[in-house]
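Supplementary material to the annual report.
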Amino acid sequence: MSELRLHPDRLLPAEPSVRGIARELYATVAQAPIVSPHGHVDARLLLDDEPFADPASLFVTPDHYVTRMLHAVGVRLHALGVRRLDGSGEPADPRAVWRVFCEHWTTFAGTASRHWLTDALVNVFGVTAIPSAQTADSLYDELAARLAEEAFRPRALYARFGVDVLATTDDPCSDLSAHRALRDDPSWHGRVVPTFRPDAYLEAGVPGWTARLDRLATASGIDTTSYDGFVAALEDRRRFFVANGATATDHGHVDAAIIPLAHAEARGLFIDARAGVITASGATALRRHLLFEMARMSCEDGLAMAIHPGVSRAHHTPTFEGYGPDTGHDIPVATEFTSSLRPMLERFGTTAGFRLIVFTVDETTWSREIAPLAGFYPSVFVGAPWWFLDTPGAMRRFREAVTDSAGFFKTAGFVDDTRAFCSIPARHDVARRVDAGYLASLVAEHRLDETEAADILQAIVGRLPREAFHL
Amino acid sequence: MSELRLHPDRLLPAEPSVRGIARELYATVAQAPIVSPHGHVDARLLLDDEPFADPASLFVTPDHYVTRMLHAVGVRLHALGVRRLDGSGEPADPRAVWRVFCEHWTTFAGTASRHWLTDALVNVFGVTAIPSAQTADSLYDELAARLAEEAFRPRALYARFGVDVLATTDDPCSDLSAHRALRDDPSWHGRVVPTFRPDAYLEAGVPGWTARLDRLATASGIDTTSYDGFVAALEDRRRFFVANGATATDHGHVDAAIIPLAHAEARGLFIDARAGVITASGATALRRHLLFEMARMSCEDGLAMAIHPGVSRAHHTPTFEGYGPDTGHDIPVATEFTSSLRPMLERFGTTAGFRLIVFTVDETTWSREIAPLAGFYPSVFVGAPWWFLDTPGAMRRFREAVTDSAGFFKTAGFVDDTRAFCSIPARHDVARRVDAGYLASLVAEHRLDETEAADILQAIVGRLPREAFHL
Amino acid sequence: MSELRLHPDRLLPAEPSVRGIARELYATVAQAPIVSPHGHVDARLLLDDEPFADPASLFVTPDHYVTRMLHAVGVRLHALGVRRLDGSGEPADPRAVWRVFCEHWTTFAGTASRHWLTDALVNVFGVTAIPSAQTADSLYDELAARLAEEAFRPRALYARFGVDVLATTDDPCSDLSAHRALRDDPSWHGRVVPTFRPDAYLEAGVPGWTARLDRLATASGIDTTSYDGFVAALEDRRRFFVANGATATDHGHVDAAIIPLAHAEARGLFIDARAGVITASGATALRRHLLFEMARMSCEDGLAMAIHPGVSRAHHTPTFEGYGPDTGHDIPVATEFTSSLRPMLERFGTTAGFRLIVFTVDETTWSREIAPLAGFYPSVFVGAPWWFLDTPGAMRRFREAVTDSAGFFKTAGFVDDTRAFCSIPARHDVARRVDAGYLASLVAEHRLDETEAADILQAIVGRLPREAFHL
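Predicted assembly:
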């Protein structure tokens, strides 16, 4: 291979008759607008519309999918531009970071990151050189030149990517000023909505919780020293988010349990937490109860509730203490849904309009728990394959595991969940290709008619994520 | 697609050379008699041989695979003809039920139910219109007309389906009068055998247990107020079942544990249970012990023992209280077999003639636990993919997970497990097609000779289920 | 099929375009030297270079993959030549054992054992008759005649198989005399290295532990009655192994936990253990701590650390008591890695040069835990599919589950793990074929360039296992 390229049939099944059908199906959605109900792009990026700084800080440093793989083969995080929390160490030279990345291009062979990176380099930037030690510098210069152009600013790319709506992930205390400024900007024609992500406020055992509640009091104007005040403040912030376009909340805790407590018990635990004397099990019980409260509020204020449990965050304490969270060492754990969600579903599972979108990184739960739950409860939707599973192989296994028991119409479309702005179209494109391939297999095995398959693919790309997330 | 149709190559692998082999293999068993060792058809259906009432009560209302999917997209159970336990609410009009079902035909796209329904409509009833709001009424009329014909009565269908033997699922107190009457009916040429299903008698913690034991005393003529009497009554009823053609018992509890207690301990728990003071953990221990007793009895009376643990029954209490059990909200849980079955297998695992057929809805256990167990213990057979897993995709995964470690000859054929009489041939046909496809893949990859593959498929369809279930 | 044969395209994907690529890729490694970093061949076999005794003791009796399958269909172990521990019973006639095996040839259809056996019979021995009752005797004679030839002695086969390096599995007290004698034998041109396997020394709760420590004291010349002495003796024996060519340690316990204790606590448990009063939970805690010590020592002495947890050993006590361990009834259990390995990885996960190779028989952990761990920690490598999973199907699932998150370069090549000397080339050949097939699929789906795929396959077969195991 002498140059970087993207084959038009990439990721479609190899068997010619299936590929032919897949190609036809894919073509019907290849240019469809992107609905992105969950991700980590900062609204300010689009508000400010500044040029991206350099290739390293665009493609390498902030993308923990990329940095973890390089770390795994022996590259230190600071050599990738990740800064120590204490500010020690020289900032890495972006060109040097880019060179390290290019030298390790082969490390990514077979991974989803390789595909996204290739797609962004070729499709977004028109690059044709394969990253390597030899090409690193010229590639850097080529990319840097592009980044200086108007056409490669965030808003121009947003338009070029065909994004219809983009959801961000936001702290409950956020004033959503960037969202509001964007909305009020007559030159802005896109749609960026906030998402209410209260994780840190629901974990009373985590350091900083009290200070966070103080900020919540300031943001809401409601005293949070009492349990009832705290709950009222959360309700208030949710209303504020709704008023500013939010359609969903987002929750990532280590397990999926949502279990109500009696009011007095919850209040007692809250008092302990405020006094700094709550036990680990007390904090867990309070968090599970507060998620129940989140479900209750969703039934009232209409925010869809997305949960993605089952990750042991910051697995390597020395790295966490040195570099902070989201630095590549969050590791999945086995997750239980059937019993964990039951107390909440007993109460709200059939409530009209309620939406619970369930994500997992434990793929054993798709056929065993999540699809059966979504195959009965009107409120439950199966979240897309996510994080370690947002890969061509896992997306295929997702459809195979879920469709049998839950069909297509209780799935919730694709989420890109990305911090890497330029990977957004690539990620959605992969999902469309894999889904087209899966549907083509059903057609080729005479399990589905091609017309119906095309309708389903259309729904997966547009209608289903809009409905599940109230977009 | 302008009409409902069944392609002759449906469900066979798409690759032409594999499909060619699969087609040849499938042809050798396509017309083979149906051996159905586990299902939920009522023997009285065949005894009475009355016409089926209407399309809705044949295809929709009693089939919780169908009702759960419609419920999941927002249809209320009573709109599907499911009656409230308290008798409240008007009975739904069958034609209206059928219409709701037809309007939601697309909901089933990609599911196993879609395939079974299509097969029954096309193959059994000769229907060619695709269900929809437009076709619902004419389809209803067409099906109702057929149901009035002699050729669509249960016995005629039994013969037309080519059923060789059909096992029902029966309460230990049943007088098996329908089975006996059938056996004594000179105009009946089929074979329907009862299966001993004592679940409710082994769960001392469940309301109604004491009354159930009183009925057991009446049925057996043995006092069940003492532990020894209770065990003797169970032995007596098993003998009665054996005398009336039973070849197997059937057990579905939440876990797979089978653990003996000392006699005094079992008796103590039984006394507590009879007195209504048994704890939840005591009831669990007693149930696990009673299953050990079931295994012991199987070694003595020759009934094969089928277990299918790992389902959390009646997950949504409001639905259970409103509509009763088996209404679509039984959800699987992770299941452990290696340690759970060990105490029983230590004792009976190598007992000559003993058969333990192990079913699961936790597919992770196939390669990890069940196939290795069946690959050592002469008594252990791998049960077919069942319930949420009796789908083309899961059946394929089953063979891939099990064959490597246990080959083909420790699997126990297919069980349709159905309440939907007209789906019996479709379900067995799907299994034959998928197995033919899997074997064809092995042939195409030169892992098996086609002659040997054909012999194996023949065994899967006939000899293996007969041997495993002593049929 | 009238004769036993091996198709040149066996195990390659059926689709012609993928097969074409796979064939080309496979050809580049088909004759590559065999790197075997883990197995159970006895070094003395190659030192003594005696002819193998007979077909039964070569192919049947010592291979618990084979005996368990025959046991599962009702053959008694003593009929397969397995001797009772108490010496009772006549030794089985090897010809009779061989006959039983041949009669059950069809039992192995679809299993990995069938493939290995066929490969050994055809490729190693040039046999063409399909084993059966009819051919058993003539096959026996044919094989026996070959075994008497010089060309079928162990060293000749070692050379013919193209083995480059073979690791054995050894007791810490072993004097490694066979390894040393081989090394000093000028007529020996191969490489056989020992592996330090201390399992029994780390399990204080197992009968015989004290006697084992006494032997360790003798072997090391270090008093093992104190905790510090015990640890020093282990360090000493590791140094002895290193001095005699060892590059790795090997650990198989029921779970994956590696958790340090304070020195005083460890010493206290050791004292209890020495006094015979340690509890089961104490013994577990001590074992987990000693594995932490093993990791520490690996960081110091450079031995790679291979763990393969998650098997319930000797599941059927009557068989264990009658015939001993490794007789086919070791059954996998669900295994947890994320939390279990954390305490050790917090400490040594980023230590330069440390290697932890993680094997599992719980395939759910590949995508969920092991690949994510290997995708961050420089020390963690993903072990090959092993034992119940060293089959064509599971090897394919392994690549699909692991590559997405960890790529290829954090996997550790293939281990044959075999006691069956003649199956070594077949086992490595299967892995090469399956990996070629997987890589060909990526090429056919335009996810990888064929040149890069060939480089990866080359690395999988040679560089990666050498690097991971320091060979």
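The two ends of chain A are 43 Å apart (CA to CA).
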